[in-house]
Structures are given as C-alpha cells and as structure tokens.
Amino acid sequence: MEFLNSFILITNYIIIPGLTYGSQLALGALGITIVYTVLRFSNFAHGEFMSFGTMSTILLTWLFIDSNIKFGTFPTAIIVLPFSIIFTIIYCLLVDKFVFKFYRQQKSKSVIALIVSIGVMFFTGGLIRFIIGPGDKNFMDGERFILKAKDFKMLTGLDEGLTIKSTQGVTIILTILLVIILFWFLNKTKTGKSMRAYSDNQELALLSGINPERIVLITWIITGTLACVAGTLYGLDKSYKPFTYLHLVLPIFAAAIVGGVGNPIGAIIGGFVISFSELLITFAYKKFFFYILPDNFLPDGLLQILSTDYKIAVSFIILVLVLLIKPTGIYKGKIIE
Amino acid sequence: MYLLHGKNITCGYDTVDILSECTVGVKKGEIASIVGPNGAGKSTAMKSIFGLLKIRLGKIFLDNEDITNLLPQERVLKGMGYVPQTNNIFPTLSVQENLEMGAFIQHEDFSDILDYVYDLFPVLKEKRNQQAGELSGGQRQQVAVGRALMTKPKVLMLDEPSAGVSPIVMESLFQKIIEIAQQGTAVLMVEQNAKQALEISDLGFVLNQGKNLYTDTGKALLSNKEVRQAFLGG
User: What ipTM does this complex have?
Assistant: First the structure.
C-alpha cells in the first residue's frame, strides 16, 4: 500500500506533468528543428510564434464564447485551433516574405539570420502585447478534469490522489497525433521526402527539379502549425501571459540541441529530457520518502534538490553539459554553427 | 553527328575566361571523355554544358535542339543527367529515396527505371533502406549515378566519377559505365585518370588551358606519342 501510494504520488506530480510539459517542449523543439534543417538558421522568434498562435486561439475563443457557440464540455480553444493555426501560418509567411526572404536571397550566413530572428522575436512580442495586452489570460473552459483526486481515492481506497487535467490529456493526445502526421509526411510523401532532400543537399535538390520556394512555403506551414498547437497547449495548461513565452524559447532551444540539432526524433527526446529533469530536480521528495521510509528516518527538510525558481537553470546546465560532452546531442544531429 | 554538342564554348568566372572556343560532344550510345591536366577547364566544360555556368559565346545542342538558354532543371527534362563531382547524393535519405528524388521531376510511374537501376547496381537493391551517407565511397558513386539515371536520360554526364574511390572500385564503375552506354545512353565524362578513361572511350577530348588540343578516338589518343608524353605519363 505504502509503495503504491508513493508510486501514485510520483505519477501525479512528476510523470503526468512531465509528459505534458515534455510534449509541449517537443512540439516547440520540432518547429525549431524544421526551420533549422530546411532554412538553416536558429529561429529565436519561435517562442513568439507560439505566443502569436495562442493569442489567435484566445481571440477566437472569446469570439466563439460571445457568439454562444459551445461544444459541450470540450474546451473551445481546441475547437478553434484549426482557425488559429491558419492565422499563425499567415503570420509566419508574412514574416518570411518581408524579412527572412531577403536574407535567404542574399545567401546570408546563418548567424545573421539568427540575429534577424531575434529582431523578429522582439517585434512579434511587441505586436502581441499591443493587441492583447501583457496581462494574464485564462481561456480554459469546459470540463477541467478527466480524473479527479477525490474520485480516484474513492475508487482505489488509496491515501494519495491522482488527478488528470483535461488539458494534460488533450496535450498528450494532440502531440502524439501531430508527431505521427509529421513523421508520416516527412518519410512517406513525395513532398516530405523532397523537403528532407532539400535540407540534405540544396544544390542537388535544385538539379533534381525540387522547387525551393515551395519547400520554404511548406516549411512555414509546418512551423506555424507546430508553433500554434504547442503555444495553445502550453497556455491552456498553465495560463497565457505573453512574457512567459519569451522565456519558453530557452528550454525549447535546449531541448532541440540536447536531442541532437536538426533531428526530429532528437527534438522529441530532448523535450522529455528537459521536462523530466526540470521536474525531478525541483520536486520536493519529502512526501515520497514519508511513504517508503520508516517513520523515524524521515528528515526535517523538504528534500528538494533545487527550488523551482531554478527551473530554467536546470535546462541550461543540461544544455552546457551536452555541448561539452556530446556536441552532436543525444541523438546524432548536426553540430550547431 | 553529336547527340549532345557543346560548340565553340567560351565561358568563365567573372571576367576571366576559362574556356575559349572549346568544342566537346558525344554520340548516341557512345562514351566520350574529356581529359587534360589540372586547370584545363574540364569541369568548367561540364558545368557550362549542363547550364550551371552561363556561357559567353557558343551554343549547346541536344538532339539538334538549341538548349543554350535552358535552366539545368529544364535540361534534365529534355533528357540530360548530371552527376556532380562532390556532394552528389542526399546523405540522410535512404538509397531508395535518393533514387526517387532523381525521378522527382517526372510525373509518370518510374518503377521500371528503378528496376533497371537496381539491376545495374545490385548492391543498391540490397542496401535500399540504408542511409546513403553510410555507404562506402564506391557505393555512394553508384547511388549518384543511379539517381541521375532515374530520369532515363539520353545523355549522362559524369564529373570525375572515380574521384576518391580505390582502383578496383574504379574498374567496376567503368564497367558499369560501359553497360550504361550499351543500353543506349550516351556518356560524357571528365576524368582525372586519363588512361583508363580513354581505354573505354569511343571519343576523347584533350583540353589544355581551356582549348581543344586533340580530338580523336580513345584508341588513337592512347597511341598518340605526344598525348602520351604530355598527359598520360609516358
């Protein structure tokens, strides 16, 4: 019983939140990876693209709620997602047309494009705060829980409760779905293969008759979709505040690099590595040991390795370690320039 | 009559002409080699014929059609296949995907050509699901040649096919080139290993400093004393 209780505790506070946060990071890191491999620059504006997607979702959600369009207990945000994805894609394409395209045609070094993307990041952040304001927005409606702690306790008779929020369920399911579609597209369709070919060897892709403008278009469609979904899921799960997305780009980059830059599978693995290490290091283990240790062995402290304030630092320590020990990342990737 | 004919080509980079009034060509079902010392303009000739380099003067004909102003992709559609000297494969794509990309521009079903390439290079069929970048140098060249063959070209252009492979591999690669020519595809190639290349060539072009020095059959060039002394090492 005690062992089961401690297991439920870990599931409730580490495994489920870790899978959720990891999925959000993985989707974000995938977006960065796609841009990095195809367009060959590190897109620091990706966090703000996610923010833009979330903002679109929130505005549409308000619109739907105001017009009294409801979908039972299902979160409205998920229903409007296809529309906000379209808005995000349009924004990405506009940014590409007016900013990135110029540097691509100049054949600028990737570090220049990186700096440009930081400019785009600040611009987008400003635009978003101008439209929706800098404050906290909660846009989750409908049923909040798939499984409530009370019900779980009643059902199993355990002391420890297990909660699964609907946002967590939705995040994990949507992530699995998106990742399957993305990998199917990249590995099985002619267009997806031509995208990989273009990222492998641009010259030869041109000689093979692959149209680079089409590849760029598809890249932004994928990036916009991933950014919008990742941002919305993160906002639903936590709450939406434009400034948090400015910080979010950091663990996402860490995830993309830790997993192996330029490798989609690596981006996913990296997302979970970052999320679980953040949680495992900042979790207070006192209650866990309360279940498994004899009463008088329990120490007084919280048994927390680092305070949650150091969350971001954890991802960066991992990033630095990976770059020092295995610069290609966990899963064979390119060495970042 | 040449199938592919670069006539009096003058071209170069910026203001410096690398080639001046250089003529090369290949007939249907034959092998032609462009040989010469380093810096003779062999690769430049290939690039200009394929349209990767704009030519200043001269004309390029394929099957009597003037293709001088076509883009490289358009030349692929007209029936030219080109294998660059370096970076000629997609390293993270599988062997099969590399070949599929060769046929990207085609809209018809290409399974019969795929079978033809696999018959020509059985080792590629064996390793079709492996990443092309993980193969050996010789196998990578086979992927590169196979990729170019996927559009069923009338003319296959090879830029230094034997670069970076061992002599044994080179020999088998040349054997494959003979087979390709026998199937009706003309082969125009640039080779550093002039002697071996001329041995299998119907026609040879000896270039020096961007000009045609000798043009003759492979055999005749091999027995030409001056060519042997100057370019074939005695």
Answer: 0.86
